[in-house]
Amino acid sequence: MHHYAWEPTPDRIAEANVTRLMRKAGAATIDELRRQSVADIDAFWDLVVRDLEIPFDRPYAQVRDSTGGVEWTTWFVDGRLNVATACVDRWRADPSMADAPAVLHEDESGHRGALSYRELGEAVDRAAAGLRARGVGKGDAVAVFLPMIPEAVIAAYAIAKVGALYVPLFSGFAANAIASRVDDAQARVVVTTDWSWRRGTQAPMKPALDAALSRCPSVETVVVVERDGTTGPVSRGPLDVPWTSFAPPVDGPVEAARTSAEDPLLLGYTSGTTGRPKGAVHTHAGFLVKVASEVAYEFDLRRGEVFFWVTDMGWVMGPLSTFGTHAVGGALLLYEGAPDTPGPDRLWRLVADHRVTMLGVSPTLIRALKPHGAELPARHDLRSIRTFGSTGEPWDEDSYTWLAETVGGRRAPVINFSGGTEVGGSFLAPYPVEPIRPCSLGGPSLGMDVDVFDAAGRPVRGELGELVCRQPWPAMTRGVWGDPERYREAYWSTYAGVWRHGDWAKADLDGQWFLFGRSDEAINVAGKRVGPAEVEGVIVAHDDVAEAAVIGVPDASKGEAIWCWWTPTAPDGPDVSDDLRRAIGAELGKPFTPARVIRVAALPKTRSAKIMRRAIRAVTIGHDPGDLSGAENPEALDLVREAAREIAVLS
Asked: Is 2 part of a structural domain of the chain?
C-alpha cells in the first residue's frame, strides 16, 4: 500500500481547471488526458488555446510546422499575438476586470503597493512609449536588472509591447555576469535601480551595472528607477535617465507591435558557474501558451486569485509566474527581500496578509524554516493556500511532509514540477486531481512526450536513466542565442531526434516519477552510478541534519568517491557523520558508502535558496568555483574549502 501525501476530494476534482479541460477532451482521468495530449500534440495545444481563451490578434493557420526538423519546429503558424495585449490590455478593456488587482508588492521594510489591470496597462503604455521614443523596436534587446518591484513587471510588458527582446537579469549578479549577458544579447537599453532590500540593508545594485558597462558597447541608455528612502550614495552617468523622465504620462493607449506568434519575446540565460552564458530564445505565443497552461492546470489558479513564488525575475520562474498569472487574470505578488527577514515567520505572514492562493517555494527554503517549529506557521491564517508549487531541486520526504501537513494541513497538494529555462515550463508535474506520493513529480506534464532512456536509448522503468522528450512543444527554445550548433549539441546530439535534458530520472512501475539531480552530476563509483539526491535523501532524514550536499570526487581506484557535506539542525548538536556514513551504506548498498561525510556550519546557497553543489564540488577538489554573484552567503564556501584542505593535509 503506497502512502499518498495528497488525495483529492470529489469536490476538489470537480472544480479544478484541468477537469474542465478533461471534459472538453473527452478524457475520464488525468492519465487518459496525458495519453491523448501526446497522441496528437497539435489537437491538444489547440484545445489549450481555446480553453484558456488566449487571444490571438490573427488566428493561426496551423498549430505546428516541423518540416525544418523537429529541433526547429515552429508553432501557431501565421498567427499573431503580443504578450502585452494577451496578458494586460485584454483585462483592462474588460469592465469586470479593469480594477481587479494585477500586481501586489511588499518589501522587507513593510512598504506595500498594488496595481490594478487598468493601472498596470497605463504604466506599460508609458514605458512602451519611452522605448519607442528611443527607437527601440523589433530586433532590439532590452535588459532588465531589477529586484522584485512593480517596475520589473512593467518593463517586461513594455518591451513585449514594442516587439523588442526582453532580457531579464538576476538581481544579485556581479559585474562580470551582467556584462557577459548584456554583451551577448547586444542590449541597447538596460533598466535598473540603485539598490534592493536584502536582510535589512539596501544592497547596492547599480554599481555592478556601472562596472559592467565598459564591456557592453551596445548599451545606449540606462533607465534608473529612483526609489524613495535611499540612504546610500548614488551615481549617475551620461547614459542614465530617470524612470520618471523615461516614461512620462501619455495620451491614450499605446498600440502594441504586430508581433507574429514566432517573434522572439524573451532571452533567458541558463544559470551556471562556468562557461559562456547560454541564452534560450522564447517566442510570444509559444512561451505564453505553455506557461498559461502550467498556471491554470497544474497550479489551478483562477481569475482574481493570488500567485506568489519566492523567486527572482532573472530566473525562468519570474517570467513564468508573471505571464502565466496574468494570462488567466490572476494577481501576482512580488516580495522584495529575504523570505525569513526580519524573522522566520515572514513568509507565513506574507501568505496570510495577501491571501495567497498558490505559494511556490524551494525545498531548501522549507528546510531552513522547518527547524523554527510548527508554531510559526500556526500563528497565521494560511487557509487561503489551495496549491503549493516547487521546482529546481529534489525534496526529502520529511521536509515535503512538513510543508504538506504542518503548513498546508493536507488541504493543498505540492505541485513539484521539473523543467527548465530552455523548456519554458515543465516536463514533469503532478496535477491536483490525482493522488500524489511524497516528493513525487507525478508524471509527464500535459503535451510533453517525456520518457526515461538508458544509455542505448531504450525506455526503462524502475531504474535511473536520462530524462528525454520525444516530441516538440510550444515553449521549446528556438535555439541558443547566436549559436545554433551549441543548441544541437546540448540537446539533440545524444539520441537522434529526441531532446535529452540532462536530468537523472526514474519512473516507477506505478507511474510516479522522480528526479535525482543533473545526469552530468551523477556519481560513478566503480562503474555504478548514483544520483546525488538519492544520497542526500538518506542524510536529511536524520533528525540532527538540516541540509546536505553530495558530490563526486575523483578517486584513483573507483573513478569517483562520494563526499557528503551536511549542516546540523542545532549549532551545538552532535557530529553524526559516522552514523550517516553507515546509514547510506545500509540504505543504498555498500558500494555507495561515502568516502567522506563532513559536518560544516553552513552550505553556500543562491538567493533563491538553492544549495550551490557545483561550487561546493569545485572548491572540494581545489578548482575555481566560478561566478558567485548569485550566492546568498558566499562565505560558507570558505568553510567547505578549509575543511577540504584539512582533510587533504591529514590524508
From this structure: no
Q: How many CA atoms lie within 13 A of 433 on its CB side?
A: 23
Grid cell in block for residue 16: 479544478
Q: How far apart are CA 531 and CA 560, in angstroms?
A: 13
Examine the domain organization and report whether 481 and 618 are in the same domain: no
pLDDT digits (tens, 9 = 90+) for 137-147: 999 999 999 99
Single out the residue of 492, 503, 552 nearest to residue 394, CA to CA.
503
- The set of cell numbers assigned to 649 is 593535509
Last residue in a domain, options 494, 513, 532: 513
What residue has cell string 504586430? 258
Per-residue model confidence as pLDDT tens digits over 629-638: 778 888 999 9
Q: Are residues 182 and 320 in the same domain?
A: yes
How many C-beta atoms lie closer than 10 Å to residue 455's C-beta?
Answer: 10
* Domain boundary residue, one of 456, 483, 513: 513
Please tell me whether residues 462 and 503 are part of one structural domain.
yes
Long-range residue pairs from 396-400, CB within 8 A, at least 24 positions apart, any chain: 396/363, 396/367, 396/439, 396/536, 396/537, 396/540, 396/541, 397/438, 397/439, 397/537, 397/541, 398/540, 398/541, 399/363, 399/366, 399/367, 399/370, 399/540, 400/5, 400/363, 400/366, 400/438, 400/439
pLDDT at 394: 78
Q: Clarify whether residues 266 and 371 are in a common domain.
A: yes
Range list of β-strands (E), 325-430? 331-336, 358-361, 387-390, 414-416, 418-420, 425-429
Output the domain CATH number for residue 640.
3.30.300.30
DSSP 177: H
pLDDT at 115: 98
Considering the domain boundaries, does residue 358 fall inside one? yes
Side-chain half-sphere exposure of 438, counting CA atoms within 13 A: 16
As a 3-state breakdown, the chain gives helix, strand, coil percent values, each rounded to 5, of 35, 25, 40
Q: How many CA atoms lie within 13 A of 520 on its CB side?
A: 9
Q: Hey, which bits of 162-263 come out as E strands?
A: 165-168, 187-193, 195-198, 201-204, 221-225, 240-242
**CA-to-CA distance for 242 and 257, rounded, in angstroms?**
25
467 and 566 co-located in one domain: no
263: which 3 cell numbers? Answer: 517573434
**Whole-angstrom Cα distance, residue 34 to residue 41?**
10
Q: Give the three cell numbers for residue 153.
A: 513587471
Q: Are residues 226 and 257 in the same domain?
A: yes
Alpha helices in 52-174 (DSSP H): 83-84, 90-92, 117-133, 150-161
Has residue 4 been placed in a domain?
no
Q: Quote the CA–CA distance of 108 and 116 in Å, as a whole number.
A: 22
**435 and 546 co-located in one domain:** no
Q: CATH number for the domain including 281?
A: 3.40.50.12780
481 and 526 both lie in a single domain: no
The one-letter code for the residue type at 10 is P
Residue 51 has pLDDT above 60, yes or no: yes
| Total number of domains in the chain | 2
pLDDT digits (tens, 9 = 90+) for 190-201: 999 999 999 999
